[in-house]
């Protein structure tokens, strides 16, 4: 078992909770209510803005030109492919690009993106790859799992699954896995444990993000 596979194995409770989550199940079955999906899309759009910054920072911290170029391509993929999917889907719901850009980040969105950006400033490249893996690998795995059960008839849910199950996104996830495994090869056990903790935090945020979309919660009710 590779290091990346061992991290996923150690966080199986979180990954199973994601696959069983009613938001994810609703996408696969085509039964997720439109208001929940719209809320999620707006928050994910805000998330992807900072996610793009993570790729830019990762490119700057990479020591090899090949890695710099790959992170730059991932930045392009996020800005011009993934975010375009959100804009097209939202346009079909009557939500303009201007409205997307004015979306207020929810607590979970703000916490997750802040954690990612902070990690980019504080960690060398292996730590950055560790926090990127749950999103990249997780979305590809979720989409492939849903696709294996049959695509829903609802166009925007089918598009979501096909986008993240595409060869391009799966290839991105595989590349990050290989980078993580390369960093872990021969690394001290204390570093490997540190990288796993970073990975686990991101995995839990992925679960919280789907829960936020299901509950449509900007902030806890105690906040005025």
Structure, described:
The chain has 224 residues and is mostly helical. The chain has one domain: Heme oxygenase-like (Heme Oxygenase, Chain A, Up-down Bundle), CATH 1.20.910. It contains 11 helices and no strands. It has helices at 3-10, 12-20, 22-29, 34-61, 65-92, 97-101, 107-122, 125-148, 155-164, 167-184, 189-215. The longest helix has 28 residues, at 34-61. It is globular and about 50 Å long. The termini are far apart. 36% of the residues are buried. The model has no long low-confidence stretch (mean pLDDT 93).
* Average pLDDT reading: 93
The CATH superfamily title:
Heme oxygenase-like
Rg (C-alpha, Å): 17 Å
Strands, count: 0
CATH class value: Mainly Alpha
* Low-confidence regions: none
Main sheet properties: none
Task: State the helical fraction.
Answer: over 70%
Under CATH, the topology can be stated as Heme Oxygenase, Chain A
Tell the overall outline. Answer: globular
Query: What is the string of SSEs from the N terminus onward?
Result: HHHHHHHHHHH
Q: Report the CATH architecture.
A: Up-down Bundle
Structural class: mainly alpha
